[in-house]
Amino acid sequence: MLSTETAATTDPLPTTPCSVVWSQGRPYVLESGAGALRWVGTDHLGRPQALSGAELHRRGWSHRRAG
């Protein structure tokens, strides 16, 4: 389906908890907490970072790590 290219903004993000997507060379895992889903990963300095689905769409994402 997808190669290492960024998914189109019309493609839906996965909705299954523990799904993994890649954005800007880093993995993000879908977690549910306090009734809301969020994508959790790290920033460029290795600090924890949580993104909403909308934020992840704006940044671009892929099912595979870009080479």
Would you kindly provide a brief summary of this structure?
The protein has 67 residues and is mainly beta.
Mean of the pLDDT scores?
85
In what order do the strands lie side by side in the largest sheet?
Answer: 1-2-3-4
Order of helices and strands: EEEEH
Largest sheet: 4 strands, antiparallel
Q: How many DSSP helices? A: 1
Amino-to-carboxy terminus distance: 17 Å
Shape: globular
Q: Could you give the count of β-strands? A: 4
Radius of gyration, in angstroms, nearest whole number:
11 Å
Structure in words:
The protein is mostly beta strands and 67 residues long. It contains one helix and four strands. A four-stranded antiparallel β-sheet has the order 1-2-3-4. The longest helix has 7 residues, at 53-59.
